[in-house]
Write a structure and sequence with these properties.
Length: about 280
């Protein structure tokens, strides 16, 4: 089955955080080298992330070749030349409705705008994800905002259970008005009801005359779920939440991002010159 799949695969899709990026939120040298060789061999590379495009672009550009870029979980699509191909915001009245639900003051609220991200408080954990401050934060009082339009709304808290409880209370009232997912256990995200990474990827593949059966994907979060299920083969990272591993137990689990899991898998299964780039066993 793998031999047949290898002949068919033309597109490689990867999430960033917890997947392609190492724990320092960077693309490691080994991973860059593997992806550069894959690009030279003719594979189309798609990066699909929950990050804002201004945040993701400088990271993805370190790969050294052009890629399609899906950001904010599918709310934005940029072509390899960085032309904006698609944009979909979450409705302002939906954001206002979500924010009307009572939540603990310990929860950090973040709204992605086009040029700035608005946040209820300074959160060093969120800030640490930006190795370059290309997308600046602005602390605001969400009760006093006049403009609630945005790309994505999300909440963060150290305890996953707190966010699950908040999600359930919001979904009870407004679930038909948005799409939502946990990109990480401590990050609950809300997007327009039509927005999903898998939908954006489908649009890119149609534009390039490929199908989902010609694509392989890598991810670690619930915002990757539909993407992993839709492609010919979905690979789940070893660092993915145990609840997601259980839910998608039929998918293959590979080494975690801290061990260059994506690059190791691709080198072993898709590169012409295996073991050329890393001396350790894979």
């Amino acid at each position: 089955m793998l031999k047949i799949m290898k002949q068919e695969i033309k597109v490689i899709i990867s999430d960033l955080d917890g997947t392609l990026l190492n724990p320092n939120h960077e693309i490691g040298t080994y991973t860059k080298t593997v992806f550069q060789e894959l690009y030279q061999q003719g594979f189309m590379i798609v990066i699909a992330t929950g990050r804002h495009h201004l945040d993701a672009m400088p990271i993805v550009d370190t790969l050294g070749f052009p890629t399609y870029l899906v950001t904010s979980n599918g709310a934005r699509i940029h072509a390899p030349n960085r032309e904006l191909l698609y944009a979909k915001n979450i409705d302002s009245d939906v954001i206002k409705a979500i924010l009307s639900v009572d939540r603990s003051a310990e929860i950090t609220t973040v709204l992605f705008k086009e040029e700035v991200w608005q946040t209820s408080k300074d959160n060093p954990k969120i800030n640490s994800f930006q190795t370059k401050m290309n997308y600046a934060p602005e602390i605001v009082d969400f009760d006093l905002l006049e403009d609630y339009s945005g790309i994505k709304l999300f909440f963060t808290h150290d305890k996953h259970s707190v966010l699950v409880e908040l999600r359930d209370r919001i979904a009870t009232k407004y679930s038909q008005h948005f799409n939502h997912a946990f990109s990480l256990p401590h990050c609950l995200e809300f997007m327009h009801k039509s927005v999903d990474k898998s939908v954006a990827i489908q649009a890119i593949l149609e534009k390039e005359s490929f199908t989902l059966q010609q694509a392989i994907s890598f991810g670690d979060g619930y915002n990757d779920e539909e993407m992993l299920k839709a492609t010919a083969k979905g690979l789940l990272m070893g660092n993915a939440p145990e609840s997601l591993k259980t839910k998608l137990s039929y998918l293959e689990t590979i080494e975690p991002n801290s061990e260059d899991g994506v690059a190791k898998y691709l080198e072993l299964n898709f590169l012409t010159n295996k073991n050329k780039y890393k001396t350790t066993n894979i």
